[in-house]
Each structure stands twice: as structure tokens, then as C-alpha cells.
Amino acid sequence: MTQRIYLVIMDETDEARSALRFAARRAVRTGGTVHILALVARQQFVAFGGVQATMEQETRDRAEVLAMTAAGSLASESGLTPVISVRQGDGPKVVRRYLDEHPEISALVLGAAQGNSPGPLVSHFSGIAGQLPCPLMVVPGGMSDEEIDRFS
Fold first, then answer.
1. How far apart are CA 30 and CA 39, in angstroms?
2. Which domains are seen in the chain, by residue range?
3. SS3 at position 19
4. Cα 74–Cα 105–Cα 13 angle in degrees, nearest 5
5. Strands 83-88 and 107-112
């Protein structure tokens, strides 16, 4: 039997934390694992290259700390050791490239924001779900930890 691998896109939102919790619970129940992909947006052009490079490095460092913190929480709560990747670029393109590079991914797990817009990644990927190489799982951002545990 092939191991199930759940890809979670990590950022500083509660929705990402919910998606990670859901994916971790699913991975434990299915004998699978989790990949955490932290995205680093490209910085807007700054006239001074050194300033831009410093800003980009600070953003990347923050994303790495976020991913490592999430991985530590995941390991302590579930015993899983996730694969961590930090990539820079346009979110949807980076995620598609990661999926292309990792055909073993079983599902893309995203957290939807509450309100009128579920967030840019959920909007993008739900619009092309039929073209993805794996199922798309969307975790409602308003779910409590108990609800996530019950449904995962």
C-alpha cells in the first residue's frame, strides 16, 4: 500500500493552522505523512538591490521559522516528522510546481478563510480542482480543533 502524503501550505493564518491539524490527523489515521510548503512572496521592486535582497532574506527567514515551528508542533502533537520546503514566488505557480515535482502527493490540503473570500489559494485551486493531479481538501476556517479532529 502506498503511503498517503498530505501537502499543506503554511503561512501565519489560522486557516493554515487548521489545514495542518486536519492533514496531521488524516496522516496519523492513514499511516501517512505531511509535507509543509511555506511560500515566500517576491518583494516589490526596490531601487536599491541590497535593500531588496535584505527584505527578501528576512521574509524567507520568517517563512522558515514559521515552517519549523509548525513542524515542531506537528511532531509533538502527532509524532509525525513532516517534510519542509520553503519556496519563493507566486503562490499558485509554486504549489503547482511542487505538485509536479512530487507526484506521490495524495492530497492538497488548504484552509479556507471565513467571510466572503476563502483566500487566494483556495479560490485559485478550487477553480481548477479538476486539473489537479490529486484531490483538493478544503478545511473551513471556522472549524474548532474538536470539529477538525472529528472529521479528519
1. 26
2. 5-151 (3.40.50.620)
3. helix
4. 45
5. unpaired
Closest by CA to 10, choosing from 79, 53, 74, is: 74
| Rg of the chain on CA atoms, in Å | 16
Beta-strand pair 83-88/33-40: parallel
Q: Which residue's entry shows cell 498530505?
A: 6
- For the entire predicted model, the pTM comes to 0.86
Residue 34 one-letter amino acid? V
Cβ neighbourhood burial of 30 (10 Å; 0-12, 13-18, 19+): middle
pLDDT (tens digit, 9 = 90+) per residue, 91-125? 999 999 999 999 999 999 999 998 889 999 999 99
Contact (CB, 8 A) for 22 and 10:
no
